[in-house]
Specification:
two-stranded antiparallel sheet; 27% helix; 177 residues; single chain
Amino acid sequence: MSKGRYSMKAVLGGLVRLFAVLFLLGCAQSLYAQTYFDFTCGGCGGSSASGVLTTTLVSGDTYLVTALSGSQGGDAMTLLPPGGYGGNDNEVFSASPFLDGAGLSFSVLLGSVDYNIYSNGSGGYMECNNVDDGVCESGTGIPVSFALTPTPESGTLILFGSGLLVLAGILRRKLFA
């Protein structure tokens, strides 16, 4: 059964190969893709903070924060580099506890106040800043709540959507053949 220049079998075979290549490219892209986490921090700086962390995979469930977009008490937050304040390493984990003892550091108010949020080692989190606490050492600061939620990246959503389209096409052909 051929229509035109190519048979239906050849066209379907080509489409299957195309989707296989796209799938493999999508998987390879996911290995090196950035991962995003929504975060919330209650009590940070006496108010709440929230936003999105852009990360890259270090190993296992450890991610290095490379960018931060969010606000604390209505003020924009800026990510500090590792070692920027309080010995931070800006590493987060996909499961609780989300931070290590070195923590995640950021600044607000155009860089006039630096904050470090870190794990206290017993399941909770602490926050210290350079105005109230000066040097941020383990055990200094105030207790805060901190949570991370992974957010799907757009490449994963596109790959998932294209897979659904392929399944719908296969089902359509089987049901109406």
